[in-house]
Amino acid sequence: MKLCIDFRKLNAVTVFDAENIPRQEDLFNQFSHATIFSSCDLCKAYWQVPLHPDNRKYTAFQTPLGLVQWVRMPFGLVTAPATFCRLMRLVIGQTPDLLSYFDDTLVFATSWQQHIVALRTLMMLLGRHGLHVNPSKVSIGSSSVEFLGHMVSSGTLVPVQTKMDEILQLSVPVKKKEVRSLLGLVNYYRYFIANFASISAPLSNLLRKGTPEKVQWTPRCDQSLTEIKRLFSSPPILIIPDMQETFIVRSDASDFGIGAVLLQDREGILMPCRYASRKLLSRECRYSAIEREALALVFAVTQFQRYLIFKHFVLQTDNKPLSYLRTGSPKNARLMRWALALQEFSFQVVHIPGSENVHADVLSRLC
């Protein structure tokens, strides 16, 4: 049981405390070579943070026994998440083979010797700061670990089965609120699915401004939901990017959407690291075919910029005119602007047959 007090009035006059929360993508990328995992949760995490004596009076609340004030950080304070994240950042720091996300702490390594050293380091750091773990939430020496709704194992990332079951059991929404809830669940895993934006477009269109609160469910909406369930019926797998290896980027465009995939070679097989997609804006739908393909290319490089900006990569396209975008001087002003936007990247453009562009070239006709 968690005791939570209504601190809304206190929060309204509290100076907001900002703290940089690590990106989940950056956390997952640290596991690219890890094969051994341990995890632990802190016991009643917030309650392990003492409140300054001068601030305790502000947390007082009424009980049948009179006023009671907190001496440890309670749930509900607007500054609590930032304070706790800052604490764990200071405790763990940049220690190799350790990471923390709120009260979840992971140890990961490629060998048992390395793993044991990291475990000892974690216990020493927690003990030094008087932090206690929950024994029932400790897992040591596993080949896989559940972290932030994903199963991590030997350089791969898979959605947890419980979330996949939730997606498969989704029912037809009746109101906009239910559509938002549905999209909120599946959007969390959208980077596992090629051209998710195009596939889910009939559902997201239900939330457009001016549409009725009661959903007008159409055959295309039904087709969209069915396709989403099909794609998640067998857990999709992504490989965790290896920054030491070459990246391959592919992109493609349809009349209604653009999509991209970031790939790497694993034992002679191109495997997806991440997918990205979005619907075309109304004005973009009027672009010529070459302009839409170029837009998809720029979108791909922009979406995967964090992996590509400091590395030479291969850009594969099944649109031959795009092969000259890097070296030529397009007469089209829009194409020229995009060519200039790509000049800060180092890449080689390789033309491939359309039949080989299967990762990106599955833009749905559902829009």
Automatic annotation (TrEMBL):
Residues 1-152 form the Reverse transcriptase domain. Keywords: Endonuclease, Hydrolase, Nuclease, Nucleotidyltransferase, RNA-directed DNA polymerase, Transferase. It comes from the Eukaryota. GO terms for molecular function: endonuclease activity; hydrolase activity; RNA-directed DNA polymerase activity. InterPro entries: DNA/RNA_pol_sf, Retrovirus_Pol_polyprotein, Rev_trsase/Diguanyl_cyclase, RT_dom, RT_RNaseH. PANTHER family: PROTEIN CBG26694, PROTEIN NYNRIN-LIKE. This is Reverse transcriptase. It comes from Plakobranchus ocellatus.
